[in-house]
């Protein structure tokens, strides 16, 4: 089997995947997605640096760095064309697009009948202020595209909302306003591979942000049937081969899904649980090719 990892060479997750593949006898080179060259009416159809992606069986996508709208669209379109010509892309470009867009991801979750916090997405300052009031005056304002808790602010004062929304207006940003859910400084990250939750952890933070990248500590969590079923449904709602599903305990024996990460990290999960999610992902992908 031939495989490539699109990610940061030397990065922890890239090396984790490469090691997992090597244990299965597969050598995978790490290449930056920013080095894509596509050809129409020519071969190879897609190359990353000096490597022809057409000749690969699987391309693992570990990082899609920020860029202009044209750059991001080109990267996803190029991977989609590659997929259409028989190369498996993990996760698929469509799934990555669904996961990175907080509005579309939330809409997909709701359409699948999965509980998720009330959210308003809009472009006008006046509509954002109206959403702030309608959601009870205590909200989380998120970048429409983002990860690891960066750029997310809690706003629970009308004057602060005014200043935050005016600042976002200057940058012509889309407002993504979500009701704040009091979760006691902790949440759950469930890691889905295929049709199963392979591991989960409770993330405990020193404040309301519970991302591992924001300093939260992970504690191994036993996965009950309700959590497993809901997490898999959430991942499947976005078409994911693998995903990190973030949830809150609703206090009534159920859960509320906050986000689904379609390029999920697993370093903190492994430290908390001892489970190698990278190996589980590789084993899942290789099983699908047998």
Structure explained in plain terms:
This protein is of the alpha+beta class and 290 residues long. It folds into three domains: 3-90, Rossmann fold (3-Layer(aba) Sandwich); 119-179, ATP-grasp fold, A domain (Dna Ligase, domain 1, 2-Layer Sandwich), CATH 3.30.1490.20; 183-287, 2-Layer Sandwich (D-amino Acid Aminotransferase, Chain A, domain 1), CATH 3.30.470. The protein is built from nine helices and 16 strands. The protein has helices at residues 12-23, 69-84, 93-100, 102-111, 125-134, 158-170, 225-237, 267-273, 277-287; strands at residues 3-6, 28-31, 36-38, 46-48, 51-52, 58-61, 88-90, 119-122, 139-142, 153-155, 175-179, 186-193, 196-204, 217-220, 242-249, 255-261. The strands form four sheets. Strands 14-13-12-15-16 form a five-stranded antiparallel sheet. Strands 2-1-6-7 form a four-stranded parallel sheet, sandwiched between helices. It is globular and about 55 Å long.
């Amino acid at each position: 089997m031939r495989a490539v990892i699109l990610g940061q060479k030397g990065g922890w997750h890239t090396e984790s995947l490469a090691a997992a593949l090597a244990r299965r006898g597969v050598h995978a080179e790490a290449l930056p997605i920013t080095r894509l060259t596509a050809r129409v009416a020519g071969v190879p159809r897609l190359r990353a640096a000096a490597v022809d992606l057409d000749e690969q069986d699987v391309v693992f996508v570990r990082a899609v760095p920020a860029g202009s709208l044209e750059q991001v669209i080109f990267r996803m379109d190029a991977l989609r064309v590659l997929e259409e010509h028989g190369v498996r892309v993990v996760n698929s470009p469509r799934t990555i697009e669904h996961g990175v867009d907080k509005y579309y991801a939330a809409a997909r979750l709701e359409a699948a009948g999965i509980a998720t916090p009330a959210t308003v997405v809009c472009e006008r300052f006046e509509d954002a202020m109206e959403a702030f009031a309608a959601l009870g005056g205590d909200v989380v304002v998120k970048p429409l595209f983002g990860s690891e808790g960066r750029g997310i602010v809690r706003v629970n004062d009308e004057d602060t909302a005014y200043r935050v929304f005016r600042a976002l207006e200057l940058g012509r940003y889309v407002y993504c306003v979500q009701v704040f859910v009091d979760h006691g400084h902790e949440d759950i990250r469930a890691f889905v591979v295929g049709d199963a939750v392979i591991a989960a952890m409770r993330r405990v933070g020193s404040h309301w942000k519970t991302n591992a990248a924001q300093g939260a500590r992970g504690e191994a969590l036993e996965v009950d049937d309700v959590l497993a079923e809901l997490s898999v449904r959430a991942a499947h709602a976005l078409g994911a081969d693998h995903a990190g599903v973030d949830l809150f305990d609703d206090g009534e024996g159920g859960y509320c899904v906050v986000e689904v990460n379609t390029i999920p990290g697993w370093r903190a999960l492994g430290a908390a649980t001892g489970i190698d999610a990278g190996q589980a992902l590789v084993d899942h992908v290789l099983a699908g090719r047998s």
